[in-house]
Design a protein that fits this description.
two-stranded antiparallel ribbon, two-stranded antiparallel sheet
Length: 332
């Protein structure tokens, strides 16, 4: 039972990342009808916003090391620590949460520029054209990141207060079960963002108009509503969701230039399994496939079926689509 509990938790936090990216993909496809292969790059850009913020906060200067008395020694000390002491150290320690606040306007701007500068010219083009141009854009963004940050992963630390693990076994009557605090926070963060997006779409006038436009764009337009402007804003919101998911994932997986592509492929499988255009299906499929992938990575399972953890998502997708061609919650 202890192993099962741990794998469920692993699957939920991994599924949270899949669900967040798939949620943005589904929003864009449902509103604009665009298959956006650059969406994984937005996840990566969010991660590198966190990297950039951390680098800025740790800009340092050489200062005398007072702990060395036999000769003059110098050490690199961040300016924030020099100026503000413990407060400066605390700001650096909380670089990832600070990055969340900074990433919101940055990712919103990137999303709006992407939609207005490129995506809008492909609304009425074939999906193959949309895939080619957005995939090309993703490669360009990827190479820009590689040129500026290098090819190696860049570790990001979680705040010290949540850097350890929690004894979660006691909550379920087990002993010796610990799980990283930050992974649990990522799961709660994912659920909060997903809940916020659904609340926005279902309980605000803006969101209800957007949903109406997703079902019948022409009728909404005839009512005098500029639905295109609202869809552009939705594209920006999808970019923000992907970026925030990337920021929060940096302490779990050190960001590198190809992490966007790694998550994009899996997230597209999630979208297809959930049902193209179905927000609920994308979220459900994200968590389902995350849990299945987690269980398939267990040593006992891989001993019986070697390599199953590499193909389980695609295998499940094939099985589901055989019986539900439009996905779990896709409309017939």
């Amino acid at each position: 039972m202890e192993a099962v509990l741990l794998q469920v938790l692993n699957g939920l936090d991994k599924g949270g990342a899949y669900a967040l990216i798939a949620l943005g993909l589904t929003l864009v496809f449902g509103t604009l009808g665009v298959v956006n292969f650059a969406h994984g790059a937005l996840f990566m850009l969010g991660a590198f916003v966190a990297v950039s913020v951390q680098k800025i906060l740790t800009i340092s200067s050489k200062v005398r090391d007072e702990s060395v008395t036999f000769f003059e020694a110098y050490k690199e000390t961040p300016y924030l620590e020099i100026w503000w002491g413990d407060t400066g150290r605390a700001i650096i320690d909380y670089s990832v949460p600070i990055s969340l606040l900074i990433a919101i306007p940055i990712m919103l701007l990137i999303g709006l520029l992407m939609e207005r500068g490129l995506i809008k010219y492909f609304y009425k083009r074939e999906h193959a054209d949309q895939i080619l141009v957005t995939f090309g854009l993703a490669i360009v963004i990827q190479e820009i990141i590689k040129a500026n940050f290098g090819a190696n992963p860049i570790p990001q630390a979680a705040p010290e207060i949540v850097a350890g693990s929690a004894d979660i076994g006691s909550l379920f009557g087990f002993e010796g079960i610990v799980y990283p605090w930050w992974r649990m926070m990522y799961l709660l963060f994912s659920l909060s963002i997903i809940g916020g997006v659904f609340a926005f779409l279902h309980f605000t006038t803006f969101g209800m108009v957007v949903r109406a436009g997703m079902h019948d764009r022409e009728t909404v337009g005839l009512l005098g509503i500029n639905i295109q402007r609202r869809f552009t804003i939705v594209f920006g919101i999808a970019a923000v969701v992907a970026g925030l998911a990337g920021v929060m994932y940096t302490p779990i997986l050190p960001p590198d230039y190809h992490m966007g592509m790694d998550f994009l492929v899996l997230s597209f499988v999630v979208v297809v399994v959930g049902g193209m255009g179905s927000l609920g299906g994308a979220v459900a499929a994200g968590f389902l496939l995350g849990i299945l992938q987690s269980f398939s990575s267990m040593t006992e399972v891989k001993a019986v079926i070697p390599g199953i953890d590499q193909i389980i998502i695609y295998l499940i997708a094939v099985v589901i689509l055989l019986f539900r061609p439009r996905g779990l919650l896709g409309k017939d």
